[in-house]
Amino acid sequence: MQRIGIIGVGEIGRAIVTGLHHEGRAASEVFLSPRGARPAAELSAQYEDVEVCADNQEVADRSEIVILAMRREHRHEALARVHVGSDKVVVNLRAGVGNDDLRQVLGTDAPLVRAIPLPTIRERRSVTVVYPSHPDVDAFFERLGGALPVADEDSFNVLSALTGTLTTHYAYLDTLTAWAADHGIAPNDADRYVRGLFQGVGRSLGDKNRSLDQLAADHETPNGNNERVRGTWFDAANAKALTNVLDGLLADLSPPKSR
Ligand SMILES: NC(=O)C1=CN([C@@H]2O[C@H](COP(=O)(O)OP(=O)(O)OC[C@H]3O[C@@H](n4cnc5c(N)ncnc54)[C@H](OP(=O)(O)O)[C@@H]3O)[C@@H](O)[C@H]2O)C=CC1
């Protein structure tokens, strides 16, 4: 039985608890902060091994792995009076909060690990980037779809910046759907078709034997429609705009010393 604490039960905290129970109960006891109250209450009603604590200190006291899943701006308020013993491991999910910063806020000698779980962790499908590698934390995320330890915090920030592209992908699909609807396709049909098209793309990504370049080439007929869209819309200027915004994200995520 691993004792897992989660301080900040919002979107990602809920996804982690759901993932721990996906397709059978995980060998864990879970201790939740009283905030957010509603998802915490729902999860404890749903799973018998999930308990809501009286305060954040109780979460830290009762857990071996303490996951910090509140938003960046709430870290001081959430952790100001919380003492975390050096026998615990703290897992920090907050984008842009480095381990040095967190150690100052927490004032603990406990090992600190940064992690980027994705919403698909709820189905144990998220490969979670971690830094630094820690055997207990790596094993925890392995159970939830996979752990990807990286060598240093700069590498962690690069992958963290990539995570920021996720909702653009959904917005892109929404734009395609709206375009089809504008051209007379029933919105439900457009939605169904676009989802099916890109679920197929998702499945192709599971084929590790083909590089991303190769997958693009395999789906493209010379002078065909795919080549036309890629070459005229996702042109060099568009690709450059994308890398520019990623550079900006990375600069904001990196602590000043490494800029
Ligand atoms: N969503 C995602 O896909 C990912 C998010 N992250 C990171 O995880 C963190 C949480 O994100 P997300 O789940 O989306 O955010 P949410 O806003 O959904 O959840 C944050 C939770 O923190 C709670 N909270 C606020 N103040 C406190 C406090 N003082 N003590 C305890 N809990 C508190 C909030 O409770 P209340 O509702 O009561 O205010 C809320 O339930 C962020 O830092 C984000 O960068 C990392 C990877 C992926």
Automatic annotation (TrEMBL):
InterPro entries: NAD(P)-bd_dom_sf (IPR036291), P5C_Rdtase_cat_N (IPR028939), Pyrroline-COOH_reductase (IPR000304). Keywords: NADP. It comes from the Bacteria. Residues 3-95 form the Pyrroline-5-carboxylate reductase catalytic N-terminal domain. GO terms for molecular function: pyrroline-5-carboxylate reductase activity. One of its GO terms (biological process) is L-proline biosynthetic process. Pfam families: F420_oxidored. NADPH binds at N56. Belongs to the pyrroline-5-carboxylate reductase family. This is Pyrroline-5-carboxylate reductase. It comes from Embleya scabrispora. The lineage of its organism: Bacteria, Bacillati, Actinomycetota, Actinomycetes, Kitasatosporales.
